[in-house]
């Protein structure tokens, strides 16, 4: 039957909203022959907690949950009220799902043994990275790592289950609470990003198969600490300036990392006089982002080697971090490893 010329064209009236996170996870379940749905459910639990934290973050200015809580965490850092709220939300989501046997959190002194010996997974998490930026409405985030336990299911959790190098992660990701809320994660089969649609209450695939540019023109470092850097770092940053690279530093790790992941660049947090072992935490910050950037074609280093190959020795172990576009990280490593005797008079 011939369509009437007066009948309106309906093809563009309802645009496709895309693939939801839940459907994407189900489609990718076949990538994990060792799993029987628990990892997929665990990712959904994290997404649910992220939605709740997103809601709390968006109403922070109206509900008196911004500002300091009045206590310090194990890192010696002043806790913000939203640090505490986010920690509670993620602890509840991870403990009620049944897939997790233990949790390592930036906000907790010790390993949280959930007494769930049937759980197959260990989660390391920074519930709210950059929370001091809440009061000035700057992007913040959540960072998480997921490991399969080493000991047999049914047995008590041990140190062996928790103290695993980053190359043993089965999944990792972050949530960015910014102008839009995004969840970016990997299960070792590429890095994918999902944007939250608040009116539908769903994350939708918006950045499939993210590939970080091999090189970039952005460097991100706290230049206020320059007097504490080693000479190689000073020379690298000077070389960036001479080539007119852009300095972009938000002071919120997830936000800085996310920008450089998409646009190309390097994030540097080197050792300093105050923090000779670096400041960022290996288990629940560096490892997760290193896994993500490698799956997107980038690189993550402590200045001497691959972040993911570091064997953790303590729960809140710190590390220097150089992460982003592979060419920029490799060049930074070269500057760092120039012997002191060869540095005098170096030209760029």
Task: Write a compact overview of the structure shown.
By secondary structure, the protein is α+β, with helices and mostly antiparallel strands.
Q: Can you offer a commentary on this structure?
A:
The chain is of the alpha+beta class. It has two domains: 21-207, 2-Layer Sandwich (Fructose-1,6-Bisphosphatase, Chain A, domain 1); 218-341, D-Maltodextrin-Binding Protein, domain 2 (3-Layer(aba) Sandwich). It is built from nine helices and 17 strands. It is globular. The chain starts with 20 loop residues before the first helix and ends in a 5-residue tail after the last helix. Residues 344-348 have low confidence and may be disordered.
What would you report as the Rg, rounded to the nearest angstrom? 21 Å
Count all strands and give the number.
Answer: 17
Oligomer: single chain
Tell me the overall shape.
Answer: globular
- pLDDT < 50 runs, ≥5 residues: 344-348
Structural class: alpha+beta
Distance between the termini: 73 Å
Q: Strands across the major sheet, in which order?
A: 4-3-5-6-7-8-9-10
List its salient traits.
348 residues; alpha+beta; Fructose-1,6-Bisphosphatase, Chain A, domain 1; D-Maltodextrin-Binding Protein, domain 2; 2 domains; eight-stranded mixed sheet; five-stranded mixed sheet; 24% strand; disordered C terminus
Question: Secondary-structure blueprint of this entry?
Answer:
Layout: H1 21-27, H2 38-58, E1 68-72, E2 78-80, H3 81-97, E3 100-105, E4 112-113, E5 121-129, E6 140-148, H4 159-162, E7 169-177, E8 181-186, E9 191-197, E10 202-207, E11 218-220, H5 231-242, E12 246-247, H6 253-263, E13 266-269, E14 280-281, H7 282-295, E15 299-301, E16 318-319, E17 321-324, H8 326-336, H9 340-343
Parallel strand pairs: 3-5, 11-12, 11-13
Antiparallel strand pairs: 1-2, 3-4, 5-6, 6-7, 7-8, 8-9, 9-10, 13-17, 14-16, 15-17
């Amino acid at each position: 039957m011939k369509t009437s010329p007066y009948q309106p064209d309906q093809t563009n009236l309802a645009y496709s909203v895309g693939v939801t996170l839940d459907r994407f996870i189900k489609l990718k379940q076949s990538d994990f022959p060792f799993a029987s749905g628990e990892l997929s459910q665990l990712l959904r639990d994290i997404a649910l907690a992220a939605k709740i934290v997103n809601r709390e973050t968006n109403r922070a200015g109206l509900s008196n949950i911004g500002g300091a809580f009045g206590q310090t965490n194990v890192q010696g850092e002043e806790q913000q009220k939203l640090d505490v709220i986010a920690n509670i939300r993620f602890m509840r989501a991870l403990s009620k799902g049944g897939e997790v046997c233990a949790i390592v959190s930036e906000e907790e002194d010790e390993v949280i043994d959930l007494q769930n010996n049937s759980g197959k997974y260990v989660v390391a998490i920074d519930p709210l990275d950059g929370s001091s930026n809440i009061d000035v409405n700057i992007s913040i985030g959540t960072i998480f790592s997921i490991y399969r336990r080493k000991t047999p299911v049914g047995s008590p959790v041990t140190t062996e289950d928790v103290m695993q190098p980053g190359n043993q992660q089965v999944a990792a990701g972050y949530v960015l609470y910014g102008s839009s809320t995004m969840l970016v994660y990997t299960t070792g089969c590429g890095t994918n990003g999902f944007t939250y649609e608040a009116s539908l209450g769903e994350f939708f695939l918006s950045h499939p198969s993210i590939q970080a540019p091999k090189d970039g023109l952005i460097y991100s470092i706290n230049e206020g600490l320059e007097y504490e850097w080693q000479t190689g770092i000073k020379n690298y940053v000077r070389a960036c300036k001479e080539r007119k690279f852009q300095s972009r530093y938000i002071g919120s790790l997830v936000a800085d990392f996310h920008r450089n992941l998409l646009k190309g660049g390097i994030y540097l947090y080197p050792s300093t006089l105050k923090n000779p072992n670096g400041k960022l935490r290996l288990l629940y910050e560096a490892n997760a982002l290193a896994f993500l950037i490698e799956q997107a074609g980038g690189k993550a280093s402590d200045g001497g080697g691959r972040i993911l190959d570091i064997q953790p020795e303590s729960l809140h172990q710190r590390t220097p971090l150089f992460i982003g576009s592979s060419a920029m990280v490799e060049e930074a490593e070269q500057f760092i490893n120039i012997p002191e005797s060869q540095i005098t008079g170096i030209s760029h």
